[in-house]
From TrEMBL:
Residues 1-22 form the signal peptide. Keywords: Signal. PROSITE patterns: PROKAR_LIPOPROTEIN. This is Lipoprotein. It comes from Holdemanella biformis. The keyword Signal applies. It comes from the Bacteria.
Length: 211
């Protein structure tokens, strides 16, 4: 028998065999269009709910804080005040409260802190400081106790409140850092306490050990 003819038959046979295997494979199941769209919508809703940032301490554990992206869900601003929020440098959450017509503006930032008390934080920062105006002192907003240092620089348009509040909630016991800046020229300071209270009432704090 002609050798080339035999080789041709073998090649044709292999081709038919491969074609048969291919045709027996089940067609990939197409997911229902409505199901796909529903999943996309679900992802969008989850993505646009909260700000989440974390801070690592000595590679031993992370402290994670969560706040609403839309601050107006926990606080009602006065007329004309526009509220915006953002995450800065992946380390803290910042909200801005601005009324351009009235030329008023406040900025509030929230940052995770170590599991120390506010008094311990003050003791650390106050050590060796002789200037009375630069010391952290006891401070209270509503039912929340902590420490506060006011920074009022002559070259800056803002007065800054540097605050550490004690927090004992959902398994976390320590402090959370809140910084509020307001324009020096802004006489009305009535909403500052309301902003701080809204933050402390609604912030979620979690401590996780590093794996």
């Amino acid at each position: 028998m002609n050798t080339n003819f035999v080789k041709s038959l073998l090649v044709i046979g292999m081709g038919l065999s491969l074609a048969a295997c291919s045709s027996n494979d089940p067609e990939p199941k197409k997911e229902d269009t409505k199901v796909v769209e529903a999943k996309k919508e679900e992802k969008k809703e989850k993505k646009a709910t909260d700000f989440v940032v974390s801070k690592n301490y000595n590679k031993k554990y992370d402290i994670i804080i969560t706040m609403p992206q839309d601050f107006t869900t926990i606080y009602t601003p006065t007329d004309g005040v526009k509220v915006t929020g953002e995450i800065v440098n992946d380390s803290f959450i910042r909200y801005s409260f601005e009324n351009k017509e009235a030329d008023t503006k406040k900025i509030a930032a929230i940052e995770a802190n170590a599991d120390a008390t506010a008094d311990e934080v003050a003791e650390t920062f106050n050590k060796g400081e002789e200037d009375e105006s630069k010391l952290y002192k006891p401070y209270q907003v509503g039912n929340y106790t902590g420490v506060n240092k006011i920074s009022d620089y002559s070259y800056d348009d803002y007065v800054t409140y540097n605050m550490y509040f004690n927090l004992d909630r959902d398994g976390f016991k320590g402090t959370i850092k809140v910084v509020v800046e307001k324009l020096k020229a802004e006489a009305d300071d009535s909403d500052t306490e309301a902003i701080i209270t809204a933050i402390l009432d609604n912030v979620k704090v979690e401590k996780k050990k590093c794996e």
